[in-house]
Amino acid sequence: MSDKRRVFLLANMTPAQKRALAVLVVAGGVGVGHKLRNMVLGAQAVQKQLTKEMTHGKPPGARRINKIAVNRQFLNRLITILKICMPSPFSKEALLVLVQGLLLVSRTLLTDLISRVEGWSGSSLIALQFESFAHSLMSFALMGIPAAVVNAGLKFMQKQIEMAFQSRLTTHLHKMYCSNRAYYAASTLGGMMNPDQRITEDVEKFCFSVSDLYAHTLKPLLDVILFTRSLSKNMGYRGQFGLYVYYMVVAYILKAMSPPMAQMTAMETALSGSFRAAHVRLVSHAEEIAFNDPPGGPAEQLILNQHLKRMLKYSRMSAFQRFIQQIADNFFVKYFATVTALLVYAAPVYFKDPALRGTQGELTNNYIRSMRLLQNTSRGVGDLILVYKRVAGLASHTSRVSELLEQVTALSAEDAEHRELFNRNVSHTKMGGIAGSVASSGDRNVDVSEAPPTPKRLHGPHISFYRLALDSPDGQPLFRELTFEVVPGRSVMLMGPNGCGKSSLFRVLAGLWPLQTGEVTTPAKHQLFYLSQRPYLVAGTLRDQLLYPFPPRAVWGSASAKERKFFEQAACDGPSPPAVISGELDARLEQCLRAVDLQYLLARGAGWEQVQPWQETLSGGEKQRLAMARLLYHQPQYAVLDECTSAVSADGEFKLYEACERSGITFLSIAHRPALKRFHDVIIHFDANLAKSGRGWWAETLQHEHRSQQNAAASQIPSQLPIYAPHPAADARAPTQNGSHAPPQQPSSTKQQDAHASSSANGGVGGGAAAWAQGGDGNGGAGRGGNKSSGKR
Q1: Residue 257 in contact with residue 386, Cβ under 8 Å?
Q2: Which residues, other chains included, contact 389 with Cβ-Cβ below 8 Å and sequence gap of 6+?
Q3: Which of 178, 232, 165 is nearest to 204 (CA)?
Q4: Quick count: other Cβ atoms within 10 Å of Cβ 759?
Q5: 697-701 β-sheet, strand order
Q6: pLDDT tens digit string along 421-454?
Q7: Which of 178, 185, 551, 570 has the smallest number of Cβ neighbours within 10 A?
Q8: Which stretch of 56-60, 363-367, 374-378, 522-526 has the lowest confidence by average pLDDT?
Q9: CA torsion, points 356, 357, 361, 364, in degrees to nearest 10?
Q10: Sign of torsion, CA 714 718 723 726?
């Protein structure tokens, strides 16, 4: 239907028909608006349900997603983060911000000049003054050169500010995240959800948002100020005031209509992080899942699809709400604002005396320049109105980065054991009831008159445990009154069924789990070396694998003097990385590889400088042997081995232990193969039956002829601990002369009987040489010293 036809139909309608049509249009608009409002509310209800589903499965200590808004808390958090990103007014970041500000001012001034040239060009063309028109074109082309440089410089400086802020903020987070084992507390103890995504993606998004907001806030503000002044020469301030009143009303309406943008952005980021974490979990446990596929693969597919559906469903609801909001934004800020601007310009011209309006060329010049300035002013005011969207997005990223900073700061400032976090997220018993369970265990060897010692960590020349008690995280008692020591040349082996507390004891020894009760003494950190069942292989060369935990050579070479000094201080006065790569160093490393039968790795690739995906390239046994080669290179006084050779063949395992023994390393190891007893002097058996035995452990002392000479010196070390509990096989105990109980007899082990007899005669054993030191209290309480008449501290 043509326009003339529509006009004809409207002209032929009666006033009543026109009123009815108007009522119908208004009613239809109200009905559509009500329907859209219900749809938006329904979308928000679905999002709330998805938020509940996401937070339902979080650990008890995990933080809930709080309501995010642009308020005082947001401003305080933003200022805190910006102080990290821009530490001083004379920093590099402050200089970048200043340069970008100058570029924004230059761009606004250039836009004003270009609008003048455009007006000059238009009026010259209308007046047929072609020479003047040519000059205007030449001026326009020349102005385009600095304008192009400034526009490109603005984008370049915005990216520079983003990267500078990201560098400052991420470096600050790395410093705290890698101190006080905060990374372990965050990932293993449940101190933080998806720390990898939050440190990488969230920080990057925040830095982009804050740099983008600066450019899109300062420029529109400058445009409005400078263009208002330029327009006042043609329009005065009264007409522009009407335009600004319109924008203030529109800003209020759009703000009232706006959905919770910051909350939606934060939830979308969190759902994306959960989806990413599900894929990371699948990659990390691919082999375990593949062994049980099918149905392991289909089960993981359902899990991944659930995360995907939840993320996309929330995003669809957000996209619909943004769609409705953008309709209003475009209409009020862009199109109807242009109508308002034209009215503001045309009204003074219409009401002015025709004799004073000027010539057609002057009107054209004024029109082109005024409309250019009005468009830029309208665009600037519109950007300022819509800046709430950018502020809302920045608020969501600020909230997540601020929470990240708060959590990482708390983890790095906690006690070294992260006791509170462990109690909140790992232990369901809050570590309570240990003292009571010791006293009520029913074991006649337990001194119920003496309360367990308060948790205490000490530093000494060797490893020792004194009256340790430990519960599993679910509250299951593991052992009580564990007392023994590991001195140079006297290795100790832990044996027992799964779940009896062997690995848990190592976690307590390393400080990964808090000490519940009792005392633990450890030597200097560089004298201890831990090897787990799953070796960690660093990203780097073959040489880097043996030098770890020293940084890879490429990393150490690029580190600044300040960073090297920080590493050396953090290493607790231990050895520093090799200053240079010498032939002597490589020869020593090759000896370590030969000792574990891995010398062929040098020929497999490009020697020591080869870089491989070591986790995928090497088999499980090769990884464990490479870790043992690392141990041989560092050659600590003590090695804590948690089934670190479980993937190695029996004969290969024997050879590895033999090489470490020749290097003078003393073991505290968890193992299950009887052949390894040859390399240990004492075996601590955990029986996982605290209710029956009363302690949950017992000791077996071994005598090896081939070790008698090398341990002769170590046996002279004075004892500080009565080391071992007897096997709880016999209930009848004959009282000795000093009132204590003789150790139970072990008919199946003549060596153990001899050791127990020696213990009864001497009242204790120095340095872990033999068995049982009885106290003088009549209850068989464990004593501290070698005096047979006293078992008290």
Answers
A1: no
A2: 258, 261
A3: 165
A4: 25
A5: 528-531, 638-642, 666-670, 492-495, 682-686, 697-701
A6: 666 656 555 444 454 444 444 443 444 446 677 8
A7: 570
A8: 56-60
A9: 160
A10: positive
